[in-house]
Amino acid sequence: MSTSPNVTAAFSPPGPHSPAPAIRARRGGAVPGLRYRPAAPVDPEKVAELDRRLQAWARRLDLFPPEWTGDFTQFQFGRAVALQHPAAVDMERLTVAGKLLMAENIVDSCYCEEDEGRGAARRGLGGRLVVAQSALDPFHATPGLEEEWRRGVQSDSPRRAYHCALKEYAAVATPSQTDRFVHDVARLHLGYLAEASWAETRHVPEVWEYLVMRQFNNFRPCLSIVDAVDGYELPEPLYARPEIQRITALACNATTIVNDLYSFTKELASDPDHLNLPQVVAANEKRGLKAAYLKSVEIHNQIMEAFETESAAASAASPLIERYTTSLAAWVSGNHEWHATNTDRYNLPNYW
Description:
The protein has helices at residues 5-10, 44-60, 69-75, 77-84, 91-112, 125-134, 143-154, 157-170, 175-201, 207-216, 220-223, 226-229, 236-239, 242-262, 264-270, 277-285, 289-315, 319-341. It is mainly α. It is built from 18 helices and no strands.
């Protein structure tokens, strides 16, 4: 993709060692003016049991060293999946959803997020991600080479997490649901590569370019599994319909902008060069960060309104589609609630 010289010239991001802009953080809670639906409440005992199962799984597979345990607690994996899947058919499927979520975060932290100090690097990211993708989308060759590949998958904790989580998901999902997830992770990896490329070249995208990248680098793999977790399948001929693909993408894009809004102060503090929607709006429209943040809320609200309106229209076509849109909407609401209440990770800028 070509760069935009006019935008890059108009905006000079801070250098790698520049201090973060001075933005006072305020308390947590919902972003004022943000369009969202309340999430269904969760049972604290269920959340505690999910966390116990997920942490035991991570330790059994040796997915992270003991010093990362605080990060596990701060993320609140159990609460996240309980909020996002209120209609889950059983604890086993909720636990699988949590394992997939954890695996995706381990790959992101270990391979992509340079500011987290875990050995991640943009240079060579494509090679790491394509091998990680093979942990989901198996390698087929001679028996000897396949054995070498299996050892390679097991030798690295991000690949090991992917492989084991997908194996458990495939045991409760249909083959088409499993394949859907595998392809959506490949989309995610494409988004990771685009973001890393822009960071390496210091390209500041236009707003639409940034949101294109975020349509790939977003929560779609998590939303790909809503029907399997809830105990049914939206068959591929229905799932592939353009209107269903559109409402799925709208839901994913709304939740991704929610992440940009809630993680805004956290990202500025740890990496002032990190691209997010308010930063990109500020660069393109020559706004201050506060005005750009509020404009980003408006963009989210328009996307969220489109999702709700078009979901209602699509749901009228069949009860199965209505069930799917309900599952999507529940995930969107639960994800917002997790962001708004997880003050261990997120605090809002003091813009109101």
